[in-house]
């Protein structure tokens, strides 16, 4: 017990996460990745760590790559030496030269294998390590950004940056950088060798280099501009995909998939395709120019080489220089994909750098500022707002708060009430210093760069006269919050926000994280592994704190009934285990566990049943009185704030009233705002017998005047463009680019055959250089030079078309597979999205990255493979045609190259598979963090989240065994050209010496085979890309071909049913439900009931009783495990899903809107959006009490809502969702806590509207506010998944059972 007391007093303090530091570097973008490496350890003290450090890996890898790059120029030099010997007339000299050069090339081959293996391992390892460090730093930088950043940059973009972009950096500045250095080593070495052996010839050929560089520079500049525009649209598409996948229930309920996917296709993916046409044209020209220039070397070399021979230069020196330049240009052509990957990585890291080095105006990393000791009594947790004017960054021209001045005394219960959108939650954000009034609407140059990258329009920012100038001071404990340390401030305030979120982990973990920043901060990996007595005592104290908090939040009872009790695992951001009310109670426990001095509740009990809410309120008031806690409550349900010491009433961003409940309710009060909010509740609560009669004018009254300003739907609504039919497999996607791929393959075959033609020409040209008569020699050589020139021009055109066709086909394939991936995902059942690896963040990243991997391969990489394979096959054919004795020597080299390449592919596949799984897990972690940034900020868990990321992923070892074997086999394939040269030098010399092989044939075969092996060896450098493509294609195929577990019956539409049996309504027969994510729990148990058309039904009960499950099974989000649900006498499992859901209008607990206009969001609910008239649109908005607000917006119905409707308050979003459901004119209206986010006045008006809307249709309501359900024809009270009471309000009141208890708690 003494230990426990010591722990409570903080004597045993757990080590906290290291403070986060801003990342700054003076390195240019090309070296910026190196800034993420840790300090280099000592060679002598830690030799293993020294050699594993990225700096050392890059240094060793660079040295090895340079060494490997020398191998081809070495071959050129030895070839020239060998050629001089072969041209001798003495057989003994020929044999001796063959033996000598054979041994030299064998040594070069082993050195090449070693160097290549070393640099492959080094660059891949360094790339993986630094990309992981970059991802961690990016997460760290994103988490510390102020809320203004997230108002502009969506979680979809953050996930894409952390997965797709950083993965491109891993490959581009890892393995591809190694290949790039290797290729440039070949280029430089060949260049030097050429000038050493034949300087005049080298000088003549040199003119090709500046010409080629000028062409490539111009094309590169054009390509960069196109790529930048593409990046912007790509980021916007990623955010759209994230919005779709994170709201799949609404997408399926309203059948929004086609419309959302149409926006994705025609507004984002189609423009990407248009940009791709220009970008791929550049890449095709680059590839064609590189190869054309390479073949032009042949023409110029033999033309001027003949002149050099006449001046006494040996044929060997001419051929050495010739091969040097050939290798130089073909190395340059082969380097194009690697160069593109590396430059793309540098471009991407520049975009990331802008976000990483952004310094937020409110920086939690700043260690300065006044720190408040939580245990100190020298300060009191009070707030004062003095003249605060504030506008959100996403709507800088609209005042959210207008000159607000208010005091929140320490130790008292202060409540804030007011209509939806009055500024209550905005005030809460300022108390937590999520925004600063003065800096919120200011946009720096760095922010503009980020907005440009994200393709976010900076609307209104440049018009300074329209922008609200923020001002005022927020004080806490007498200090300006700007003078306080941000982390210290937030650690004094425990907060439960609207729509609280949980993190992935156990229920215990979710409550215990509330201890962040205290001496009892809980870290599962450390606290559960430490077995010392002090640690055990500390953990025991944490356990007791968590249990006490859960009891105070009225959550202990339901938590203990979960499958694994308090250790039950829940998934952050996904439903399936806990109901909305249960989530809220866990969040309240999380706030209470730290025993805060200030507690801020923002609609914290909106989804909790009335009796439970009353118990929570009593517990909180007792806590407040006992500890003198400052309690701040933002509420719409005014019964929760009756006991408040002071109530602040807000309207239109201003404080209009302050007083106690009784004072504000006094009819003599000058301002009647509070009274208008409270009276609807008081009227209902005071009459438990019969519903009140409404004296207000019905919002459906046709006599109401129309809006004076009509909006023409035909002009304002963009025409819906239907999507192309869905594909059934990835093969169909390939068939859509068949023409482009066919053209690419045909031209690739011609381009590949060009190498063999050139080899045949070269053999004859080399022999011609040895003609004794210089005049005849010049004539013959010039003729061959002309043929080389013709071949070069043809190759330029053929290979440019070849490259463009495949690259453009690949880009089109990316766009189609991206669309089809999302289309396939949104049709999956809800349970699919609740699986461990199917979070919206993971799927968003995968839906971008997997199509990208496929398109990346079916572009320039496939172009290289086709031309190389054609060259490979044609070489064999030509070798056997010319001389079978030479051909048999070709077979071992080609067979060995193929075998080693296949072995390399398998090793690479296993290595990449393990790496991909890790990256997917990291993406899911980042996605959850990005979507939970408000929670992490409020809990000051930024540093701990980064530490958890590091602990979870930094310790995962790289699979060095498979990487090593992959590198060794790759080295073998690259060394095969030298091994073959050793063999052919020896064997060819022997055959020439005996007269069985002509020199021309030997030179032709040697040239053809060397190029074939060289290009085929190059192919295996793309095994990583092939592996990624193959794995990605498998994933996409699995999505497209996966049949949803909730299958749609494909029989005939029930038109006859609708006419003959529409009066039968809905019937539940012994319905049972077990959620796939928790099959051991019976969520619905033997539910039987009948619901008749035209009547209203309501379900009430405690959180987790099964109310929302009723709506879930009605819409077939889940299939029941037993029993039947009949609609008009027909089992809903025998109905087409779209037919079933089209009869329902659904309003969910959490309002879901999309980053489009108000109009688009509303009409998307209609079954035929394009036929919605202005009158219907305005009528639905009038019913939902949102029309006046929409008219007040600058662009009215054409106003953009921002990410997930972020520009609106919770109540405004909820009313728009109600309007969306009403415009559907559904036969069955499903309301799941539809008015929970509304103030009392709006709720009363909307409820009246819903009551009128219910006439003639069946309405099924889920609610905790009994004022919402009392008018229902039948009320079902649920407990533990079953119906315990049923009847009208009067009947249930007379019964004095469970419903009576619930009503009494709200009186």
From TrEMBL:
- Alphabetically, which GO biological process terms does the record hold? oligopeptide export from mitochondrion
**What is this protein identified as?**
ATP-binding cassette, subfamily B (MDR/TAP), member 1
Task: List the transmembrane segments.
Answer: 55-82, 102-128, 177-196, 202-222, 284-305, 325-349, 739-761, 784-804, 886-905, 962-987, 1002-1020
**The keyword Membrane is assigned to this record:** yes
What membrane topology does the annotation report for this chain? Multi-pass membrane protein
Query: Which keywords fit this entry according to its UniProt record?
Result: ATP-binding, Membrane, Nucleotide-binding, Transmembrane, Transmembrane helix
- Name of a matching Pfam family: ABC_tran
Q: Which domain of life is it from?
A: Eukaryota
The ABC transporter domain extends over 383-677, 1066-1305
Give all residue intervals belonging to the ABC transmembrane type-1 domain. Answer: 59-345, 743-1028
Instruction: Cite the record's Low complexity compositional bias ranges.
Output: 688-705
Which family, according to the similarity comment?
Belongs to the ABC transporter superfamily. ABCB family. Multidrug resistance exporter (TC 3.A.1.201) subfamily.
- A molecular function (GO) term: ABC-type oligopeptide transporter activity
From the UniProt annotation, give the residues forming the signal peptide.
none
Compartments reported by the entry: Membrane
Provide the species name. Kwoniella heveanensis BCC8398
GO cellular component terms, semicolon-separated = mitochondrial inner membrane
The reply on keyword Secreted is no
Principal localisation: membrane
Q: Which SUPFAM superfamilies match?
A: ABC transporter transmembrane region, P-loop containing nucleoside triphosphate hydrolases
Region (Disordered) spans which residues? 681-711
According to the entry, what is the taxonomic lineage of the organism? Answer: Eukaryota, Fungi, Dikarya, Basidiomycota, Agaricomycotina
